[in-house]
Design a protein that fits this description.
The structure is a single chain. The protein is α+β, with helices and mostly antiparallel strands. The protein is built from seven helices and six strands. It has one domain (about 35-255). About 35% of the residues lie in helices and about 10% in strands. It has a two-stranded antiparallel sheet. Helix 2 runs antiparallel to helix 4 and helix 2 (about 60-95) packs antiparallel against helix 5 (about 170-175). The protein is globular and about 45 Å long.
Length: about 260
């Protein structure tokens, strides 16, 4: 006879901890797949140790998920009037700088691999996608990630919006739609078919506007490194941790720490 679901306690080893005997010459530990274990994951999590319990509680925590959704919607509705005013001003500057669509939408991968359109303010020239192949050699991250610090396709107003993270404001509507959460792994532009098996745990939760990666102060983080931070967050998630990450995000945005 079925009984009420109870949290499953995991006793497996912490995948984000790097044993000193496993360090390679490049300064990273290596896991059983031969991938680098980023030690900055420890640094990002250590300051939250007082918020997370040991041992870990596995997905899914229904009460937490309901509370998280209520918090997301309430917070977004609370800031929505201010967001609309800021978006109107920023949108006008985007159009004056480079006439054309003010908003930019891109297919991203969400929970359980479902694809959805994520909204942003446009920060690049209109034909940015057509020019992508011409600047592909400038990519600073490992495929399928794509990031260029001084991307020539970015407009001057776009650089300001990116530096202040104002280009991400339209994602408030993604949160209200239920495609995203305020806190969670960032959604990838590439589909779930690109994911290796070890990557799929990050697809068990809604993607977020911010997360551990955003407050780590690192902009040049490859997908495998981000994955470790995402999994660490997923396995420790709580409403208090979410609120703490949001507070740290506001601080990071105000100081423009790690942004470009």
């Amino acid at each position: 006879m079925a009984t009420a679901s109870r949290p499953i306690i995991e006793t497996r080893a912490d995948p984000t901890r790097v044993p000193t005997s496993n360090l390679s010459s490049d300064g990273y530990g290596r896991d059983r797949d031969g991938l680098p274990e980023a030690s900055f994951v420890d640094d990002a999590l250590d300051e939250f140790d007082y918020l997370v319990a040991r041992p870990r509680v596995r997905l899914f925590k229904t009460r937490y998920e309901i509370s998280k959704r209520v918090f997301d919607v309430a917070a977004c509705l609370l800031v929505l009037p201010a967001v609309l005013v800021v978006l109107a001003g920023c949108g006008a500057m985007v159009w004056i700088n480079d006439p054309g669509p003010v908003f930019f939408s891109q297919w991203r991968t969400g929970r359980r691999g479902r694809r959805f359109k994520m909204f942003k303010l446009r920060t690049m020239v209109n034909n940015a996608e057509e020019l992508k192949e011409k600047v592909a050699h400038l990519n600073e991250l490992t495929w399928p990630d794509f990031k260029i610090t001084d991307d020539p396709r970015v407009t001057w107003i776009g650089r300001i919006l990116r530096k202040t993270s104002l280009d991400e404001l339209p994602q408030v509507f993604n949160v209200l739609k239920g495609d995203m959460s305020l806190v969670g792994p960032r959604p990838t532009s590439f589909g779930s078919e690109t994911y290796a098996l070890r990557h799929t745990e990050r697809l068990e939760v809604l993607p977020g506007i911010t997360g551990l990666w955003q407050i780590s102060g690192r902009s040049d983080v490859d997908f495998d490194e981000r994955l470790r931070m995402d999994v660490a967050y997923i396995e420790r998630q709580s409403l208090l941790l979410d609120i703490s990450i949001l507070i740290r995000t506001v601080t990071a945005v105000c100081t423009q720490h790690g942004a470009y």
